25S rRNA (uridine-N(3))-methyltransferase BMT5-like domain-containing protein (Meloidogyne enterolobii), 352 residues
Amino acid sequence: MHFLKTLGSNILILGDGNLTFSLSLSRIFPDKYIIATVYEEESEWRKKYADFDADVLDKIKNECKNTKVVFKVDALDFEKVSTKTEFTDIIFNFPHYGGKTNLRKCRLLLRKIFESVARNLMASEPRSSRFHVTLAPGQSGIEATDLIYTNVPPKHNKDSWQPLELASEFGMVATSVERFDSYKFPEYSSSGYKNTQRGFINGKNSQTITFELSGYFIDVERFSLERVKFIESSFVPSRTIDHPVFHQFRPVFQYHISIIFGSSHNWQDIEKTEGHLFSLMGHCAGPLLVSVCELADRRCTAPGDLHNRIYCVKYQGIVLPLCRTLGNALHDEFCSHLNRYFEEGNYDLRVS
């Protein structure tokens, strides 16, 4: 597992349930400073896991001199263990809100976890810490791949926890996605499924996603199209809609835009005009615009018998953590700028 090779010297483990992961990691890295946390108070924890290996806590205390166990730590607010230590890595395996699987509640939980972790990472100097979260099969919606940059859009399953999009809300971007190999942790036995001792299905299709803070986080109040174009252009200057480059671990946001062709355009020359239209779109949005295509089945006429065509546009940030809120702001400003280009250039086109 790649993330094991990159672990730093100070590690925080959130929500470790029966503490077997912390025991296993401590034995793998006896020289690293590890704080292992569980949600329950110690008495509650001992009662909950009474039928489990009761010696696991004693093993950590007696064998793992650099590991400290802290009880009653909420992963959504763990400042009490982070105020005195700047962690190089934060690990959370199989987060779950405790009840019957509910996609909305799972996303809400994961969003709060990212908010809590990002708050901690932003407070540390330098801001180079990593967050490793492991999700059960199907929860990430991401296809693991060694080819991070391709000319093919990533296949992100929307019927998932959507970790990439949720992380971007707090300025975090994924740097790797890999299979979680449970066999590398001999003592580890997951627990906490539906708030019980039962474990999660953590077989070969579970994934560990590593996130870092982006250095280019912009909130919607400070958003401007020209600013984000400059940021992206400095990193991917050759990225255009004619030569798209997709990052497989970044969310893609899709919108529809309606263009009305004025009376000077007849249907025979619209295709020729479209080539120039796409160039204008690319100039307007820069490398954030990765795809434009017409929805031919939605062709219609606007009042005045004018040709009206609908286009699907897709945006993706690479260094910029682009979330849905920023995507909305980007698209609104894109449409506004495009209309201005049309007016200034007398193109007899308009966004409707």
Notes: The longest strand covers residues 306-315. The mean pLDDT is 89.
